[in-house]
């Protein structure tokens, strides 16, 4: 069966140009192989000896020659049309290729002067690769020109689109490997074209690089016919172009001709949209390229009688025992010499002038494009005064007012959109939940972006909205990452349970930030801000499948410098937190807050003080005035736990007035850790002043209770911490019943307090009986009437 | 623009049949609306009053009528051809529809006799929905006939394929909503057709149900043209059929005609393959259906002047204030009466006979199909004796032998495959890593399954392999879930870091198991077994992006009944663990073990005893003979930490012979928890006997150190636990350097031990200096030579 359909070879390149671009490609390939193998003798001035070979051969050759091939041809297009372009390298294994190309451009030596453009620099370039104290084997933050670490596959295309939004002059070339093409996130990412506005945004040029194999298997798309691929990508809304073959000269001609065509197509789409000539009801058919080239192209054809080039055996190190086996070393030497290094580098080891001329200059070099070091381009976000959006809380009537806190944040975000409208550098992301999460005020000043048809009865859809909604957390996260990494700002609101869908993307972004912070030349980017709402305690329409507060457990595993977790209990604290997070950089901030009406506790001034401290005693809620120490500390973190704690305290104070109660609220979870573990951690002294050193602490926590233990186990009073939280009980039921099922409700909290104060259970036996019977009464009532008892629904803090 | 292309209406149904099927559909719709709204008056014997309406209206109408429509037509096909079919309902929000249909079939009342087929039963059916003490709003384990909870979207189609593998007579009808169709996992799942063998496996019939809207937005595919969708699904390798419209009579005819066609097509594909008439080089083009029907079909057209039917406003509860607002209640009553309940149910509230006849009988009912309660069909897995695969460890020369432990497990798994070959009920899943993870022995008896072209030089690919490899953890996990839920067994090996990609799928499966265990009628299914290998400590080719041991932290949040975590330190313990996990049911077992050569510690007999206890003192490694208590406890969990601990103990015993050291190894992490928190938890007495109540414990742990604190904070000696683990430091470097970067290496462990034993640091000041200088020496050596010092590489336990 004929799988591929070649085009008649258009002669896009004159013979001289072809020879030059082929030499440039060979130079990149030579440097790539050198990085994988050589400790010394970088220019092969002498025959290869065992001691020139690294003791441990680590890295991935298979994908690299194809990546280098694309790079050389993109350089040609940049020079030809003065393009502003970056290269997103999905097959991140191909680290040697990206390093090689940025070295050829000169930018690598500018960033790392120790790796100079001479023989000694080349020796160091080779040696450092996958070497202790050197650089990792993958494209990484250390690689100039990259916004994308390729370790975990699936996110290249969504990063590329994120980079292109609001960058009308930018072209993002994005290579997707055929391994990566099997992942879910990529499979959905192709639909990002429905969200890219050619008038306002830049262009993404996806290049699906089919080399046919993964680690030890063929790939789905590698074995698919051209016709199936043509249909698939046409169905996704693209215009596919094919470049297929293995003969370098032919492939250079095909690639050059195809690039000429697709860049003309991109320009035509943009011109039409920007000059108002485009059919406003048609999402443009952007070009994409399918490039079929052999895995391990130009490498050894066979090793030990086994097929290597064009097969998965070239995935990592095609010929492995080059130190110990003379025949293997000979294969390597022949392979490297096949690129003819004398034809590429001068006596000093510097790329020859006529080849240097093939790279673009200055910031046009893809390794030096400032979009790939987004902090360079980041403009400060303008934010409104949070006081303008404050809820007016009367200190004499706390908890009386019921407000949807996220609605207040929505008004604040509306103003952020307005203030930065001109800069076009702020977007809101979410899986179809902006309105549902009560952030709908933003639609007073913007819309959801939508490039497919818009019907007359549609609501808040437009071609230039700044709210991005798609039912894929992967796309929301990836777009936002790409947007931030290129110097902009954003905000992601998501159902709490389903943020787990992007756990691994969060991990990778946290890793990127951790390493970036260690590189002085990488300038800080805006923080990635999550609002997790529709949380575990208020899944009224859904139930158990929507109940999981564990994302923050994962977050707490990451480097303290990088992560923050906030649990604001009401609107004013949420406003402070949201505002604070938007002003930070190089972090991941997680805010957990409900969208349902809830009691409002603090004035704005109090909220500011409370949030700045991260934790505090709510004196107005306790009754320890004059006591040396309280009998019990009632602590809480999270909006629902705070309400239940205050309801428990209200009961305790009424029913056992002699009991001295302290109420502590935690907004910034990291304050619980010790100061040496986290920059926000309280000193032990401060912690002891708040939680005492010997009194029982009943801690009502929003999520899995273990996290509080993990954060506080070093504290003096930890043995007296009794934490309640979500214990995986739940279903579709009433809000209060959810807390009862997980024993986080006011009655359980009050009962636990009584049981933990020495001697109190006996003295207050009547209260214990009464509280237990209340639980019974609740149980009967809710099952009979399907709603919470009026006294629960109507409870308000006495003020 | 014309979006849809109608086919000429074939008259597949005679007039009488059409009227019947329409009435059946109306019955399901009536029951669906009743569940969302009514507390009482289920048959509308009297005008609707406020008190008949639920106080809290929860649920999702929008998707439900379409689901009911499909159900009715699938019933017709089952009866017509005696099909063995299950229904996977991707839009799990449509819970009322699945409940309604299984009630109409009679199976609901068989499973839940209290919900009888009469007026009182119907009243209870309505009342229990989304009601405290009742059933959740989504399709859930409580729903007969379901293997799929629809809360988190994206997994319907992988579950369907998982169910179809090795079930040649089964047809899995799988409805994918257009919201779900935007997710990554679904977008990749369409490629599952490349892994389904028509000769050996059953069929999956995907029905893409486009009702056009998500919560508050149109959907990508809902707004795509038929032509784009035709190309897209053709490109995925399917033959798409379209059913488009809103007029019920027309739609019934279209659906019936289309089903007649597609089921004939399925049968033809299967016949050709099974009779050897199919082109073996062609992956068959299975049919799939695109059904476009209005969201909220047959519901209120408008409410309060706003468009509802055919728009996102019908997503949840189309008319909301039916208790308080007479006009709204009137809309509801008119809507329900539009289905004409008297025409559907008899005086007793039972479905009329002529309609009952439309449902299949007995186990052919989709709600009663045993495949959807897989435990009914589960056959015990045959397993070999683990002793046959034991590594021969000489107790006099422990740690001398270096073995790749996962390779031993691979041989065991090979035998499992052989022993169960005839039953065709065991498969191995992994993202292209079976060989890389050293499980390659399985390829002696089976292959990877592959339905695209196979080239002559391909290795271990075939049409009927039992190893499923695709570069998508989502597909591996989802296929395995579907396979297990329908009563089979499986094993998933994955790179440790990238299992986070399926965190949320793990969550949902754990939730499914938790609820299933509470339902007596749901029979136990085989456990979901993970082998996490290529772990954090041995990412030689990769580096930081591949280093994350945090999956187990997430696992530990789940219900203790459901989860187990094992860290076998060598091959024999790995064999016991793997064997044990394969014999368990209704659990999720996580095994973490490296694939690199590592020292072997225990004989098989010792391994059995050690693993059965889950934790134990390694007396041969310590030197406390005769002492009342050791000076220090060196504890370890995980293969690399075990090796580093023993190397530290080796040094301590040589250099400070007077120091009494105890070595404790933990295989079963849950043993650390207290017995009341986890069934595997040690009693406090046993824990104290092992860890003492007052001696320092230096705990070398495989993952993030906090987990050990979280598991042990209640223990008497917890204050003396000093845990070392992964602290997010790493890159591409040597294996030993990785442990040094994270301060988990032998030198740091020995130094910590010395520092924690009172007075020892002063006495052993020379040793401290020596160990510190060793660290310096390592640092210099590794950066100069690129490999670990010979004394590190060559270290062996003295035996």
TrEMBL record, chains A, B:
Enzyme nomenclature, EC number: 4.1.2.-
Domain Xylulose 5-phosphate/Fructose 6-phosphate phosphoketolase N-terminal, chain residue ranges per copy: 17-376
Protein name: Probable phosphoketolase
NCBIfam families: PRK05261.1-1, PRK05261.1-2, PRK05261.1-4, PRK05261.1-6
Start and end residues of each Xylulose 5-phosphate/Fructose 6-phosphate phosphoketolase C-terminal domain: 595-797
KW Lyase (keyword) present: yes
Biological process, per Gene Ontology: carbohydrate metabolic process
Pfam family, one: XFP
Listed cofactors: thiamine diphosphate
Gene Ontology MF: a single term: aldehyde-lyase activity
Signal peptide start and end residues: none
CDD domains found in the cross-reference section: TPP_PK (cd02011)
Regions that span the bilayer: none
Domain of life of the source: Bacteria
Lyase in keyword set: yes
Keywords per UniProt: Lyase, Thiamine pyrophosphate
InterPro entries to which the protein is assigned, alphabetical: Phosphoketolase (IPR023962), THDP-binding (IPR029061), Transketo_C/PFOR_II (IPR009014), Xul5P/Fru6P_PKetolase (IPR005593), Xul5P/Fru6P_PKetolase_C (IPR018969), Xul5P/Fru6P_PKetolase_CS (IPR019790), Xul5P/Fru6P_PKetolase_N (IPR018970), Xul5P/Fru6P_PKetolase_ThDP_BS (IPR019789)
Family assignment from sequence similarity: Belongs to the XFP family.
């Amino acid at each position: 069966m004929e799988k591929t359909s070649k085009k008649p070879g258009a002669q896009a390149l004159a013979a001289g140009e072809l020879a030059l671009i082929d030499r440039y490609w060979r130079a990149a390939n030579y440097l790539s192989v050198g990085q994988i193998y050589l400790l010394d003798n970088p220019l092969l001035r002498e025959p290869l000896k065992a001691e020139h070979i690294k003791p441990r051969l680590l890295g991935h050759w298979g994908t690299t020659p194809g990546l280098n091939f694309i790079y050389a041809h993109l350089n040609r297009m940049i020079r030809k049309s003065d393009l502003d372009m970056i290269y997103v390298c999905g097959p991140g294994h191909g680290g040697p290729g990206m390093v090689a190309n940025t070295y050829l451009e000169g930018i690598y030596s500018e960033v790392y002067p120790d790796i100079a453009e001479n023989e000694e620099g080349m020796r160091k370039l080779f040696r450092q690769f996958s070497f202790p104290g050197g650089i990792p084997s993958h494209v990484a933050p250390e690689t100039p020109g990259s916004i994308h670490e390729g370790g975990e596959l699936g996110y290249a295309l969504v990063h590329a689109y994120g980079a292109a939004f609001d960058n009308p002059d930018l072209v993002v070339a994005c290579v997707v490997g055929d391994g990566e093409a099997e992942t879910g996130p990529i499979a959905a990412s192709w639909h990002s074209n429905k969200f890219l506005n050619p008038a306002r945004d830049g262009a993404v040029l996806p290049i699906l690089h089919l080399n046919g194999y993964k680690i030890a298997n063929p790939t789905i798309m590698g074995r698919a016919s051209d016709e199936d691929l043509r249909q698939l990508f046409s169905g996704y809304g693209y215009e596919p172009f094919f470049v297929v073959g293995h003969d370098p000269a032919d492939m250079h001609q095909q690639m050059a001709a195809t690039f000429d065509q697709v860049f003309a197509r991109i320009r035509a789409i943009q011109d039409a949209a920007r000059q108002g000539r485009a059919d406003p009801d048609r999402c443009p058919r952007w070009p994409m390229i399918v490039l079929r080239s052999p895995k391990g192209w130009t490498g050894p054809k066979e090793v030990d009688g086994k097929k290597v080039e064009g097969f998965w055996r070239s995935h990592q190190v095609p010929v492995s025992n080059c130190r110990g086996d003379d025949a293997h070393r000979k294969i390597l030497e022949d392979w490297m010499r096949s690129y003819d290094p004398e034809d590429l580098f001068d006596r000093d080891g510097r790329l020859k002038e006529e080849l240097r001329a093939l790279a673009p200059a200055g910031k046009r070099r893809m390794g030096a494009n400032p979009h790939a070091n987004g902090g360079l381009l980041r403009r400060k976000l303008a934010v409104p005064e949070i006081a303008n959006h404050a809820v007016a809380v009367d200190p004499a009537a706390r908890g009386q007012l019921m407000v949807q806190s996220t609605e207040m944040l929505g008004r604040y975000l509306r103003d952020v959109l307005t203030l930065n409208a001109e800069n076009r550098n702020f977007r809101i992301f979410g899986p179809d939940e902006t309105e549902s999460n009560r952030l709908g005020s933003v639609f007073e000043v913007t819309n959801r972006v939508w490039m497919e048809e818009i019907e007359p009865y549609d609501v808040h859809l437009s071609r230039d909205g700044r709210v991005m909604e798609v039912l894929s957390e992967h796309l929301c996260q990836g777009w936002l990452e790409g947007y931030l990494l290129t110097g902009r700002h954003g905000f992601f609101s998501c159902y709490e349970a389903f943020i787990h869908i992007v756990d691994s993307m969060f991990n990778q972004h946290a890793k990127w930030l951790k390493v970036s912070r260690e590189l002085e030349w990488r300038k800080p980017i805006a923080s990635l801000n999550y609002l997790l709402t529709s949380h575990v305690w208020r899944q009224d329409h859904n139930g158990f499948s929507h109940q999981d507060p564990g994302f923050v457990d994962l977050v707490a595993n990451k480097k303290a410098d990088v992560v923050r977790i906030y649990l604001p209990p009401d609107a004013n604290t949420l406003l402070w937190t949201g505002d604070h997070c938007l002003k930070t950089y190089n972090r991941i901030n997680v805010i957990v807050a409900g969208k349902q009406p809830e009691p409002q506790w603090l004035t704005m001034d109090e909220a500011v003080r409370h949030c700045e401290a991260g934790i505090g005693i709510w004196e107005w809620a306790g009754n320890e005035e004059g006591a040396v120490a309280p009998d019990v500390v009632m602590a809480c973190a999270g909006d629902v736990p705070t309400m239940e704690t205050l309801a428990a305290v209200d009961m305790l104070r009424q029913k056992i007035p002699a009991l001295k109660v302290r109420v502590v609220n935690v907004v910034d979870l990291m304050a619980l850790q010790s100061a040496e573990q986290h920059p926000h951690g309280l000193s032990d002294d401060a912690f002891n002043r708040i939680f005492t050193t010997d009194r029982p602490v009943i801690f009502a926590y929003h999520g899995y209770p273990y996290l509080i233990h993990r954060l506080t186990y070093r504290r003096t009073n930890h043995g007296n911490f009794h934490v309640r939280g979500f214990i995986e009980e739940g279903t579709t039921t009433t809000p209060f019943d959810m807390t009862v099922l997980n024993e986080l409700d006011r009655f359980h909290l009050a009962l636990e307090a009584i049981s933990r104060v020495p001697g109190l259970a006996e003295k207050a036996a009547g209260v214990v009986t009464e509280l237990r019977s209340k639980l019974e009464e609740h149980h009967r009532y809710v099952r009979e009437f399907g709603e919470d008892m009026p006294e629960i629904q109507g409870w308000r803090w006495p003020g």
